[in-house]
Amino acid sequence: MYLGVDAAGPLLNSRLTGICDGLQECMPESRKIPSCHYDTKGGQFDVTLDIVRKHLRRHKARRVLVGAVNDSAALAVLQAFREIGLEKNVRL
User: Fold this and answer.
1) Are strands 67-68 and 37-39 parallel, antiparallel or unpaired?
2) Is the pTM of this model over 0.85?
3) C-alpha closest to that of 2 among 86, 31, 17
4) pLDDT in tens, 73-84
């Protein structure tokens, strides 16, 4: 799951491009793994929290790799996992 900020343009979202490129370089087979890209509307905590909650309800994946564009988005991910009792599985 990639959490970006579409309105920020390519500069801020280059962080996500770097995460994706680095993952594919270290694990070429990761290209076959389905991914979801979400716009966090500025990386706002509340917006991101809602996005991640919805994602976790829809997708029952056992493992989720998250690339977040900023700290607020990363902390929202942690909170969403905390709410469903999977905080111990999160590595930031």
Assistant:
1) unpaired
2) no
3) 17
4) 899 999 999 998
